[in-house]
Amino acid sequence: MLDPMGVVSWPARRTLAVSDLHLEKGSHFAARGFFVPPYDTRETLSKLALAVRRYRPARLILLGDSFHDALGCERMAPADCAALLRILAPVQEVVWVLGNHDPVAPVGLPGIAVNVFSDGPLTFRHEADPRATGELSGHFHPKATLATRAGGVTRPCFATDGRRVILPAFGAYTGGLDVRDPALGGLFPRGGRVFMLGTDRLFSVPMAPMRRRTESAA
């Protein structure tokens, strides 16, 4: 089940999956001299708390880049760390899938850290494997643009072709990659569908097949 919050629920397994929180992205850039309002972690955790209260999962799978860098967990303010622990407390199983931004297990937080997690027909990883089926992943922060009378509307989205689902980024300070970009669209060579996030619903839009590049005759 795809949710407009940008999470995936698997009721039969009481599992909730979310991707790319990028916690402490603001402090990462602040340490390098770029001012970013330091509220991203708090805003993202507030959304995560709402999702956990709504679905009451027994298992929470975080699909990588949960922190913006390997030391992000250590930079969290005590109040934010306490908020995260409260969110995780009722969850029986927490799975931290490691990503390219957070390649090591978070320190002092409950759960297990893995590169890939599998349960029955589904596999959970950070970056999609083009050969895989039954896969949920993140990494690309997919977004799509829908033409309207008022102009184009761009929103984060799920991208799927029935073989895999790529989740939108959940974090407050995350950008996005257009689903038409070859790096993302190439994972769906036969096309598929995107589900754009709305306030309280998803908007389904077809994803055109990728056109093969032809060699010049010259």
Structure description:
With 218 residues, the chain is of the alpha/beta class. It has one domain (8-127, 134-207): Purple Acid Phosphatase, chain A, domain 2 (4-Layer Sandwich), CATH 3.60.21. 19% of the residues lie in helices and 29% in strands. It has helices spanning 25-30, 40-55, 72-75, 78-88, 182-185, and strands at residues 8-10, 15-18, 59-62, 93-97, 112-114, 116-119, 122-125, 135-137, 142-148, 151-160, 164-166, 177-178, 192-197, 202-207. The strands form 2 sheets. Strands 6, 7, 8, 9, 10, 11, 12, 13 and 14 form a 9-stranded mixed beta sheet that branches. Strand 9 and strand 10 (151-160) form a beta hairpin. The chain starts with 7 loop residues before the first strand and ends in an 11-residue tail after the last strand.
> Which shape, going by the Cα principal axes?
globular
Structural class estimated from helices and strands: alpha/beta
Radius of gyration: 18 Å
CATH class: Alpha Beta
Write the CATH fold name. Answer: Purple Acid Phosphatase, chain A, domain 2
Q: Mean pLDDT, as a whole number?
A: 90
Listing every helix as H and every strand as E from the N terminus to the C terminus, the arrangement reads EEHHEHHEEEEEEEEEHEE
The separation of the N and C termini measures 50 Å
Q: How would a textbook summarize the main sheet?
A: 9 strands, mixed
Structural domain tally: 1
